[in-house]
Amino acid sequence: MSMSLRDQLLKAGLVNEKQAKQASKQKQKQQRLEHKNQVEKDDSQRQAAEQAKAEKLARDQELNRQQQEKAEKKAKAAQIKQLIEGTRLPKLESDDYYNFVDAKKVKRIAVNDLIRDKLSRGSLAIVSYDGRYEIVPRDAAVKIQERDPRRVVLLNVQSQEPDEDDPYKDYVVPDDLMW
């Protein structure tokens, strides 16, 4: 049977028992250190994997949030479109126009006397839709304003009826002058 190198060196007298034990201890110590370093390497790999997983989770959450915002925006746009198309008044062919301001520019829309009166009193409103202007009832304009305030171009404050005790109730100040 073959003898280990340690046994052969002991038999030949090249090393003594003390030196052999010391070499054995040194070898065991080296193996423990290598195992410990391997564990540390495994820990660093595990930590790197956990960090990558956390980063991926954060990216996924951000992407989901963006997609959700996009879907909400699309849903609001669809609601606004439905409100406008369902409640808008038909376009009039008239020589009488109602002037209003949009983005520091004076715009105009064809109206009749009844619509002009309702616009000035706040019963009707003007909203922008697909690059055009539409006239809608006040309730629809308020709902549109909740979803996207930029769409409502003109929404006058609804006029209140004068008190019965008011001595000037018969003298109405015009706020819808033609210009």
Q: What would you say about this model in short?
A:
By secondary structure, this protein is of the alpha+beta class. The chain has 2 domains: 19-87; 89-154, no CATH class.
Major sheet description: 3 strands, antiparallel
Strand content: 15-25%
Counting H and I runs of at least 4 residues, what is the number of helices? 4
Radius of gyration: 42 Å
Q: Report the average pLDDT across residues.
A: 84
Description:
Residues 1-74 are annotated as: Disordered. Pfam families: DUF2058 (PF09831). It comes from Pseudomonas aeruginosa. Residues 31-45, 52-74 have a biased composition (Basic and acidic residues). With 179 residues, the protein is of the alpha+beta class. It folds into two domains: 19-87; 89-154, no CATH class. The longest helix has 71 residues, at 17-87. 55% of the residues lie in helices and 15% in strands. It has helices at 5-12, 17-87, 113-121, 138-147; strands at 97-102, 105-110, 124-129, 132-137, 152-154. A hairpin with a 2-residue loop joins strand 3 (124-129) and strand 4. The N and C termini lie far apart (120 Å). The protein is rod-shaped, with a radius of gyration of 42 Å. The chain is built from four helices and five strands.
